[in-house]
Amino acid sequence: xxxxxxxxxxxxxxxxxxxxxxxxxxxxxxxxxxxxxxxxxxxxxxxxxxxxxxxxxxxxxxxxxxxxxxxxxxxxxxxxxxxxxxxxxxxxxxxxxxxxxxxxxxxxxxxxxxxxxxxxxxxxxxxxxxxxxxxxxxxxxxxxxxxxxxxxxxxxxxxxxxxxxxxxxxxxxxxxxxxxxxxxxxxxxxxxxxxxxxxxxxxxxxxxxxxxxxxxxxxxxxxxxxxxxxxxxxxxxxxxxxxxxxxxxxxxxxxxxxxxxxxxxxxxxxxxxxxxxxxxxxxxxxxxxxxxxxxxxxxxxxxxxxxxxxxxxxxxxxxxxxxxxxxxxxxxxxxxxxxxxxxxxxxxxxxxxxxxxxxxxxxxxxxxxxxxxxxxxxxxxxxxxxxxxxxxxxxxxxxxxxxxxxxxxxxxxxxx
Length: 416
Hints:
Elements: H1 2-19, H2 36-40, H3 62-66, E1 72-76, E2 87-98, E3 107-120, E4 136-151, E5 153-168, E6 185-200, H4 202-206, E7 212-213, E8 219-235, E9 239-243, E10 246-250, E11 255-269, E12 274-289, H5 311-316, E13 324-334, E14 338-347, E15 350-361, H6 363-371, H7 376-382, E16 385-394, E17 402-411
Helix pairs in contact: 6-7
C-alpha cells in the first residue's frame, strides 16, 4: 500500500505540473476525491444520487437528496492514514432532515455537510525530482448545504464553501521560485462550489402501482430512474501567497461537470419493508477545466457554464478530447448487501484509465433480520443503521495502480 500510494501521489503531481504548468493554485487536496465508491466508478459523482457522506465533493446538490431520508452519516478512510512523510487524510459528515410532517405533506428537505481533507507531502521521497528539498502541505475545510423538493420529480440545489490553506517550499511550483529563497510560502484562500441535481422517477410517474408476484407470492416492484446533474467547482477570487515580504495572487483550477445517471432494478416486498433485490446504475460525467489557457501566470480568464463540454460528443457518444475528460461508471447492487463497481476515464492528457471496486453493507441483512424479530429495541436499531465498507482500485493494471478503502456509518429514516 505504501509503495502504491507513493506512486499515485507522484502521478497526481506530474499531471498537475504537466497539464496546468505554473498553476500555483493547483491545491492537491482539491484534486483527490475522498469518496472511495466514486473513485471506483471512474471518479464520477455529479448526477448519481446516493447516501455517501463525501458525495457532495463533486456536487453540493447531493446534500438536498441526503435530507430526503432524515439521515446522519459519517465517513472515514483508513487507507488514507499517514505513512512516513506523505499522506492524504479526509473525513466527511452529513446531516439531513425532511420537513414533510411540518409542512403537511410537502416533501421539502435540507442537508448540511462538512468535509476536512489534508494533503501532506513534507519531505516526500517519491517526488525528489519535482520537489527538490521541498515540502507541500495543503488542506481545506468544506461546509456544504443543499435543499431538495420532491414534487413528481425531485429537484436539488446546493453550494459549498471551502476554506483553503497551504504551506509550500519555494521549489514546489516554478512560478513561485522568486518569492523566497528556501523560505516557506504560506497560501490562503477560499472557493465556492455550486450544483444542481434533478431526479426523475420514470416508473413511478408512468405506472406507480406496477408490481408482479415472485416466489411464494412475494411482490416485486421494478423501477427505472433518470437523473442529471451540473456542478461548477472551485469558483474563487484567487489564492494569496506570501513569503519574505513578497505577495502573489493566483487562481484555483475552476472546473465544470455535467453528467447523467440511468438507474434500474427490482425491489421485493418483505412483511414490513421493501428490499432492493437487484440494482444497476450507469453514470457518466463530462469534466472541463475552464481556464482559457493551459499556461497562465498568477491570474487567468475562465470560460463560463459548460466551457468546452458538448452534450452530444462527450455525454451521448462518450468521446473525450484534449479539453474534456469523460468519466464512466457501472454499479451493481445485490440485496443491499454487496455491490460491484467498474469505471474509467480519459481525455485532457489521460489515456483510458480503468477503475474498479466493491462494497459490503449491512442494510439488507439488517432489514431481513428486523422483519423476523419482535424485539422492539433491536428492530429499531436494525431499521435505521447501515455500516458500509468500500474498496477501490485506481489506474487498474498500470504502473500507477493504487487501492483505497473507506468506511461509512449511516443512521437513516429517523422520524422527529
